[in-house]
Every structure is written in C-alpha cells, then in structure tokens.
Amino acid sequence: MAEPEPDSDTDRNDRGDSGRRGRLGLIVPSSNATAEPEFRDYLPDSITVHGARMALESVTVDELDAMSDDAARAAELLGHADVDAVAYACTTGSLIHGPGFDAELEDRLERAAGVPAVATARSVVRALEALDAERIAVATPYTDELDEKEREFLDAAGFEVAALDGRGLAANAAIGELAPTDARDQVTDLIGSDIDDLDAVFVSCTNYRSLAAVEGLEADLGLPVVTSNGATLWDVCGAAGFEADGPGALFDRGRDR
C-alpha cells in the first residue's frame, strides 16, 4: 500500500519531503556525555541524532586546538549518513582561535558535510542576538585561561560581559559530572552579586548539564537563560528546517533561515 501524503505542517517537518525521518549530525568531544542526551530530550522521536567524536579529555587550549583538526573529517563522515544539518557542539573549541574562527569553522564543516553546519560559539551569538541581549552574565565550568578567551570572544561579538564566573575545571569528565542543580546554584550566586540591567544569562559548555535548569532560572530571575546546548540545538534545527521543543525564551523565538 502506498504511504499517505503528509496532511499537516507537522508531518512535513517530521518526515521531510522524501518521506524519511529527519536526521541531525552532532560532532562532540570524545569525553562529552551531555550533548547527545540533552538534544534527544528536546527533539521529537521523528528526528534522530547521529554522533561523531573528536579526541579530547581535558578542556585546555592545547587539546582544543588539536581537536579542531578532526572536525572536517567528522563532518564528512556524518554526510555519509545523509544528515540534514551538522552541529559542532563545543563552545571553547569553536572560539579558541578568536573572532571569526567560529564562522570559518562553520564554512569548513558545511563544505565537508555538504549540508548546513553550525558551531556552538556562533550559535550562542545568534541566540543572544535573537533575544536582543547586550549586557550579559556568564557562568562556565572552565579555568581562568579559557574564561578569558570566552570573555574576549563575547566582547568582540558586541556583548558586554557584566560578570563571569568559572568553576576552574579542566577535566571534561569532571565537567560532565555536574548536574543542572549545580548550574542553577552557580547562576543564582553570580546574579546575587548586585549585577544590574542584565539582558540575559549564558551558561557555557556543551558538557555542562544545564539545559534542564533553564525554565526554573528564568522563572526566578525574570531573564532569558541561554545554554551552549540550547543555543546549538535551536540553531541547528533552524538550519535544518526542524522544530525543537526546547525550554525557555530562546525556543519561543524563530531563527532566520
């Protein structure tokens, strides 16, 4: 029996014009145990997530620099799976070489995979811009060295970083052990330090389990809260033409496609 034609926009979103399910490619550091589950939690069953990994154990400048060499090959292999879009899910890995590297990385991945590609650092910029955010507070699990690189990147992107707090962790496995309650406590303590006139809060790192904390934090703070995985999921779904039922103010905003 012939398969019936889709009868709604939702059906078309879930199945695609060819009748197949949607597919997202996700490039992550080898020690990241958070991005894939967080993506899966906020996607419909009709969109599948297909991962590729790049070697990284510690979130340091040297390891992040070496890891970026594997990105194009990972994207190329995901292209073999006929994915609809690719996301490079590593925040500091996509800003490590300063302003402009994030856009160059997206271009390189798009050429390798043959489909639209996004990189977390650029996705965060797009997310904050979509929320009309200018003055932000930033919570990270990182060391001071990486916190400073992140501050420089966000400053160059046009955001005023009113406050930044890092947990001083380098081992990515240790970052992955943090819970949403840790993110909530870190942000609450940061905002409690008399920061006025904030437009948004950014919780950085795709291995920091923070997406589940977004709705509670937004209710407590009265501010939009963006996380690395939230921004990346929102952005790559926009690039692929999919919808994700993610938490918070960001997912109430459309993405220019």
Question: What characteristics describe this protein?
Answer:
257 residues; alpha/beta; Rossmann fold; 2 domains; four-stranded parallel beta sheet; disordered N terminus
Per-chain topology:
Blueprint: H1 9-15, E1 22-29, H2 35-41, E2 47-54, H3 61-67, H4 71-80, E3 85-88, H5 101-113, E4 117-119, H6 120-130, E5 135-140, H7 144-156, E6 160-166, H8 172-176, H9 180-191, E7 200-203, H10 214-221, E8 225-227, H11 228-240
Parallel strand pairs: 1-2, 1-3, 3-4, 5-6, 5-7, 7-8
Describe the structure.
The protein contains eleven helices and eight strands. It has a four-stranded parallel β-sheet with strand order 2-1-3-4, with helices on both faces. It is α/β, with parallel strands linked by helices and 257 residues long. The protein folds into two domains: 9-122 and 230-252, 3-Layer(aba) Sandwich (Rossmann fold), CATH 3.40.50; 132-226, Rossmann fold. The protein has helices spanning 9-15, 35-41, 61-67, 71-80, 101-113, 120-130, 144-156, 172-176, 180-191, 214-221, 228-240, and strands at residues 22-29, 47-54, 85-88, 117-119, 135-140, 160-166, 200-203, 225-227.
The total beta strand count reads 8
Lateral arrangement of strands in the main beta sheet:
2-1-3-4
Report, as a whole number of angstroms, the end-to-end distance: 36 Å
Determine the number of helices (DSSP H or I, runs of at least 4 residues): 11
- CATH third-level topology of the largest domain: Rossmann fold
Classified by CATH, the class of the largest domain is Alpha Beta
The appropriate CATH architecture of the largest domain is 3-Layer(aba) Sandwich
Shape: globular
The helix-and-strand class reads: alpha/beta
- Average pLDDT across residues? 88
